[in-house]
Amino acid sequence: MTPAEEAFLRRAIELSGEAHASGNPPFGSLLVGPHGDVLAEERNTTITDGDISAHPEQKLARWAARELDAETAAATTMYTSCQPCGMCAGAIDRSGLGRVVFALSGDQLATLKPPGTGFPAVPQEGPALFDEARVPVEGYYRPSTS
Questions:
Q1: Helix 56-67, helix 86-95: angle, nearest 10
Q2: What parts of the sequence cross the membrane (predicted)?
Q3: Least C-beta-crowded within 10 Å: which of 8, 77, 90, 141?
């Protein structure tokens, strides 16, 4: 890891402290452009915004998808205080960001939490009604031949 990458990670950790100080979960992230410039920074605001999706990684991925062309997005690096959760990882993938560098792993984070914290898995059932469900989807991912 380069000294610049360490500095970006330290900034993500500072942002996580700012989130914590404002009453939110302690997570922070920044998005660095292809030339090493900080494009955007975010903190977790799930509590103060009353929005379960207000994770900093999610907010940066949405920002990048709106504001950056695909080539620029693919050349960015997100530096984040903790490994992105599943929701954020999905948003990062869909936004086309180039790379993520994190300070704490999800496993390391789990060791810092009291036992029994976290969210229970929601049971899921399916697939069902394939013939009906595929009708609105068919053609969306494949261009029409007509």
A1: 10
A2: none
A3: 141
55 with 76: CB under 8 angstroms? no
- Sorted by where each begins, the domain ranges of the chain are 3-119
pLDDT in tens, the chain (146 residues): 999 999 999 999 999 999 999 999 999 999 999 999 999 999 999 999 999 999 999 999 999 999 999 999 999 999 999 999 999 999 999 999 999 999 999 999 989 988 888 888 899 999 999 999 999 999 888 776 65
DSSP designation for 56 = H
Q: Is residue 5 annotated as part of the catalytic site, yes or no?
A: no
Provide the greatest CA pair distance for the chain.
59
Distance from C-alpha of 120 to C-alpha of 103, rounded to nearest angstrom? 25
**Catalytic residue of the set 57, 67, 125, 138:** 57
Report the predicted TM-score, pTM, of the whole model to 2 decimal places. 0.89
CB burial readout 87-108, b (16+ within 10 A) else e? ebeebbeebbbeebebbbeeee
